[in-house]
Amino acid sequence: MTDVALRRLEKSFGRTPAVRGIDLDAPAGRLTVLLGPSGCGKTTLLRLIAGLEEADAGEIRIGGRLVNDLSPRERDVAIVFQSYALYPHMTVFKNLAFALKMSGMRRAAINARVREVAKMLQIDDLLARRPRQLSGGQQQRVAMGRAMVREPQVYLFDEPLSNLDARLRAQMRAEITRLQRALGTTMIYVTHDQVEAMTLADHVVLLDRGRVAQAGPPLDIYNRPANLFVASFLGAPPMNLYETRILGQVDGAVLVALPQGALARVRIKGRPPERLTPVTLGIRPENLLLGDAAPAADTLDADVTRVERLGAQTHVVLACSDMQLIAIADGEARIAVGDRIRVHLPGSRCHLFDIAGRAM
């Protein structure tokens, strides 16, 4: 199995920096997701690994081998693009076999390899069809198969599911996960969709303006964001954030001011800051306790300003003085716009960020 390591990698287009001194490790045999908003550098990073762009500085190593000066073919990687890029005049079989034929592989070996991959992707009954006769999901499977027949060291995926509808995206996520487990090959997958990242990844690298904001297992990043960008980017609805001040400490917890004289009791890792230090308090919508579920102590009374019923869940938008909150309630919750409701922010589920946006 092959790992991918980037060290101090930089790339600019004219005066616009796209990748800024990135250090990154994609573990061997795992699926690493490069996640972030548009313009954060994730596709540029993938193209640098593939050799489709030349780095301005830094090192790219695949399986320990420095590949900066190697061509895409010499790097032994395969890339699946957002556009399927299939040859429209060729059958599925010929699309899959093309790269093998160009490499000089014997016809019998090509036939065996193509049929093996087609069976794995469940497109073995489509080999005689042309791309125009296929659905979007089938075309994406063919595009994946064209990469798989080569048996590269590393697979690279550049937002491959963006052209599919929601149901097909869910199906293809399951297919990609199944294939990665079956093949055991290193995969690097680019997306701006946090659902794809959370469901697919063994390892997530969240990018912000050409730099790594945080990297690690998906749930670690979700539950322990390193900074305000990570906290606000991951989660739907996003984390509630409130600018406030430290009022003191008690029993090892920091006391944070809330509207109506309420407090949040938050434990932090480092040394407690001084009284009246400005901080940002964060709590995810699913961690707020509403109504009868809220304990009597340290609660707020908030007005319901919007209710969004999504079936299994209800999203509740709340206003309390200068504090705006989104909470997730049960799908059958009896809550209506105009209600006044009790809200509790459990200190054990709260996050604190300093004035520079770093987690405390």
Features:
360 residues, alpha+beta, OB fold (Dihydrolipoamide Acetyltransferase, E2P), six-stranded mixed β-sheet, five-stranded antiparallel β-sheet, 20 strands, elongated
> Termini distance?
37 Å
SSE series: EEEHEEHEHHHEHEHEEHHEEEEEEEEEE
Strand content: 25-35%
Helix fraction?
10-25%
> What is the CATH topology assignment of the largest domain?
Rossmann fold
CATH architecture of the largest domain: 3-Layer(aba) Sandwich
Shape assignment: elongated
The CATH class label of the largest domain is Alpha Beta
The low-confidence parts are none
Q: Describe the strand arrangement of the main beta sheet, using strand numbers.
A: 6-7-8-3-9-10
Would you count the extended β strands for me?
A: 20
Total DSSP helices: 9
What's the layout of helices and strands?
Elements: E1 4-13, E2 16-26, E3 31-35, H1 42-50, E4 57-62, E5 65-66, H2 72-75, E6 77-80, H3 92-102, H4 107-120, H5 136-148, E7 154-158, H6 166-183, E8 186-191, H7 194-200, E9 203-208, E10 211-216, H8 218-223, H9 228-233, E11 240-250, E12 253-257, E13 263-266, E14 278-283, E15 289-290, E16 299-309, E17 313-320, E18 323-330, E19 340-344, E20 351-353
Parallel strand pairs: 3-8, 3-9, 6-7, 7-8
Antiparallel strand pairs: 1-2, 1-4, 4-5, 9-10, 11-12, 11-14, 12-13, 14-20, 15-19, 16-17, 16-19, 17-18
What do these coordinates show?
There is one protein chain. By secondary structure, the chain is an alpha+beta fold. It folds into 2 domains: 4-229, P-loop containing nucleotide triphosphate hydrolases (Rossmann fold, 3-Layer(aba) Sandwich), CATH 3.40.50.300; 240-353, Beta Barrel (OB fold (Dihydrolipoamide Acetyltransferase, E2P)), CATH 2.40.50.100. Helix content is 24%, strand content 34%. It has 9 helices and 20 strands. It has helices at 42-50, 72-75, 92-102, 107-120, 136-148, 166-183, 194-200, 218-223, 228-233, and strands at residues 4-13, 16-26, 31-35, 57-62, 65-66, 77-80, 154-158, 186-191, 203-208, 211-216, 240-250, 253-257, 263-266, 278-283, 289-290, 299-309, 313-320, 323-330, 340-344, 351-353. The protein has a 6-stranded mixed β-sheet with strand order 6-7-8-3-9-10, sandwiched between helices. The chain has a 5-stranded antiparallel β-sheet with strand order 13-12-11-14-20. The chain has a 5-stranded antiparallel β-sheet with strand order 15-19-16-17-18, with no helix packed on it. Strand 17 and strand 18 (323-330) form a beta hairpin. The longest helix has 18 residues, at 166-183. The model has no long low-confidence stretch (mean pLDDT 92).
